[in-house]
Design goal:
This protein is an alpha+beta fold and about 260 residues long. About 60% of the residues lie in helices and about 10% in strands. A hairpin with a 2-residue loop joins strand 4 and strand 5.
Length: about 260
């Protein structure tokens, strides 16, 4: 799940920067010259003006890049809102999804994650702090095993553990252990979590478990998610290992919008 590569903000903004700087050249403002195109001498003068402007005030380019990046973020945020609205109940109201925090919370945080993802593991204490500090948050886990067969094996295990009421316990044990997930490591983690290993193995083989994983992956694709972790809070999407403050701000915004 990869998005098309985009030109750097600096490259995309340079034409606009040139247009702004051309206003300083008297002949550039004349419609007949603009219609006729630039001569070699005019192009040389444009380059000289740009070079001198950037040499005199380097902040012009810095500000231009910052403006382009801000525009990019605004476009991404708008696209995320559309995708989130389109996802509807599949995002926050799938009855089989594992839930942590307050099941009746007034704000839902949806976490798309991979058990082997180092950034997801880094977020464990951050999410724990978020839930501890705000007792009105409902956290939904969306397992999207995108890092290979070991991730798929782990996702099948934790979703199967849910049938024994042990999703969170096995999730925590696996996330605290080696990212090289095998049946042997899962056995040890399941025993540590107090689960019935034989039953877990049986449930892991149920096609319904794989169907749930497929549904999560399809939803992630529809939302434009191509990495982990990603947090959906209200109509906002926060990718990567974000700060606690960013999550809190998103929660506040979602709560205010209700």
């Amino acid at each position: 799940m990869r998005r098309p590569a985009k030109r750097p903000a600096r490259t995309r903004f340079l034409p606009l920067l040139l247009a702004v700087l051309l206003a300083a050249v008297p002949w550039a403002a004349r419609a007949d010259d603009a219609a006729a195109g630039f001569t070699a001498a005019q192009r040389a003068e444009i380059i000289a003006v740009v070079r001198q402007a950037l040499k005199t005030d380097p902040s012009i380019l810095r500000d231009a890049v910052a403006a382009a990046q801000a525009e990019d973020e605004a476009v991404k945020a708008a696209a995320a809102r559309v995708a989130i609205d389109h996802a509807g109940p599949a995002l926050t109201d799938t009855p089989t999804d594992p839930v942590a925090g307050n099941p009746h919370g007034d704000v839902t945080v949806v976490e798309f994650y991979d058990l082997r993802c180092p950034y997801c593991r880094r977020m464990l204490p951050v999410i724990a702090d978020l839930l501890r500090q705000d007792g009105k948050i409902r956290l939904i886990y969306k397992d999207i095993p995108i890092l290979g067969p070991a991730s798929v094996l782990g996702a099948r295990a934790v979703l199967a553990a849910q049938r024994q009421g042990g999703y969170q316990r096995l999730h925590d044990a696996v996330m605290a252990g080696t990212p090289d997930i095998t049946e042997a490591t899962l056995h040890d983690d399941a025993v540590q979590a107090g689960l019935d290993w034989s039953r877990l193995l049986h449930d892991m083989a149920d096609p319904e478990i794989q169907s749930r994983i497929a549904a999560n992956l399809a939803l992630a694709h529809d939302l434009g998610i191509d990495g982990t972790p990603v947090y959906v809070v209200g109509r906002a999407m926060l990718p990567g290992a974000v700060d606690l403050a960013d999550l809190e701000s998103a929660v506040t915004a979602a709560r205010t919008a209700r």
